[in-house]
Amino acid sequence: MEIELLKTFLLAAKKENFREVAEEMMMTQSAITKQIQKLEKVLHIQLLIGFKNELF
C-alpha cells in the first residue's frame, strides 16, 4: 500500500473537504477521489461518506 494514499485519507478525514485537500496537496479533486477509492478497494471498506460537500 502506498503511503501517499494514507496521507490523502488522513488529510481528507481531518479537513472533511476534498477541495481543501486537493488545494493543500496541489492535486485535482478528482485525483483525491481516485486515491480514496483506491485505498477503499485495497482495504475492502468504505472509508468516507460524502453528502453535499461534507464528509462523515
From TrEMBL:
It comes from the Bacteria. InterPro entries: LysR_HTH_N, WH-like_DNA-bd_sf, WH_DNA-bd_sf. Residues 1-49 form the HTH lysR-type domain. Pfam families: HTH_1. This is LysR family transcriptional regulator. The lineage of its organism: Bacteria, Bacillati, Bacillota, Bacilli, Bacillales.
